[in-house]
Amino acid sequence: MLKVRELRAGYGGVDVLHGVDLDLAEGESAAVVGANGAGKTTLVRAVCGLLAPSSGRIEVDGQDLARLPGHARVKHGIAVVLEGRNLFPELTVAENLRVAQEAGRRSGRRIFSREEILSLFPVVAERLDTPVGLMSGGQQQMVAIARALLLQPRLLLLDELSTGLAPKVVREILAALAHLRGRGTSLLLVEQSIAIAAEMTQRGYVMSVGRVVHRIEHGGWAATVEDGTLLKAYLHG
Ligand SMILES: Nc1ncnc2c1ncn2[C@@H]1O[C@H](COP(=O)(O)OP(=O)(O)OP(=O)(O)O)[C@@H](O)[C@H]1O
Ligand SMILES: [Mg+2]
Q: Which residue's alpha carbon is at the smallest distance from atom 2 of ligand 1?
């Protein structure tokens, strides 16, 4: 469903991505791994439309979205959970969710009901009237994922979902992602943790200095992790 070709993007006229190619089939999950500064977040921002690419194509079902703004890409089924989450801390959980719910309704897709989303994250359901800023980092991450799901995505991008969170919370979030995978949602994970990437995804892209330098094909994670050389070379051990 997603086909990225020759994607270049950066900041202030200087490219950070130097021609990235990436594919994701319908219902497939893949991880993007790489050292700090490799361009992973830049890739996520360019795919979801928060950053205008300088050139290249971002096709969803054969249609090039590279020149469309973010809200138009939401209509095509792309949603993102960013590093830092971009929630409104003074607003309640329900208020943070409301706009996304409306946008999801306008998309015309009806993949996830509000009930299904809240059942994935009981703590979010219990805290609808709580200002988001009073919640823990893990709970905020769950709100951010719930918000993205209300957009009725077919493709969900997640940037560093596990960073800084307690292992128990990470497990809960991964269980929710496993549910999404079972529901046919395509997932693109940017991960620091190779263990999580290997557990949650079928394929991988190793990035270095704005390029995909290695592809881990279907079923290839185990051998890649066992061998270790590749990951050591590109992730600084
Ligand atoms: N807003 C910005 N303005 C200018 N340069 C930026 C900006 N954001 C990132 N960069 C630069 O772009 C390059 C890639 O950064 P990016 O955040 O995409 O890397 P990353 O792979 O996500 O790293 P990390 O693992 O630390 O999150 C880096 O050299 C970084 O300094
Ligand atoms: Mg990043």
A: 11
Between the CA of 41 and the centroid of ligand 2 the distance, in Å, is 4
What is the 161 CA–ligand 1 centroid distance (Å)? 17
Query: Architecture of domain 2-235 in CATH?
Result: 3-Layer(aba) Sandwich (3.40)
- Encode the chain (237 residues) as per-residue pLDDT tens digits: 999 999 999 999 999 999 999 999 999 999 999 999 999 999 999 999 999 999 999 999 999 999 999 999 999 999 999 988 889 999 999 999 999 999 999 999 999 999 999 999 999 999 999 999 999 999 999 999 999 999 999 999 999 999 999 999 999 999 999 999 999 999 999 998 899 999 999 999 999 999 999 999 998 999 988 888 888 888 864
Could you give the C-alpha distances from 35 to 18, 74, 207, 237, in angstroms and in order?
A: 16, 29, 8, 10
Pocket test for ligand 1, best of 8, 11, 20 (most atoms within 8 A of CB): 11
Which residue ranges make up each domain of the chain?
A: 2-235
Going from the Cα of 11 to the center of ligand 1, the distance in angstroms, rounded, reads 9
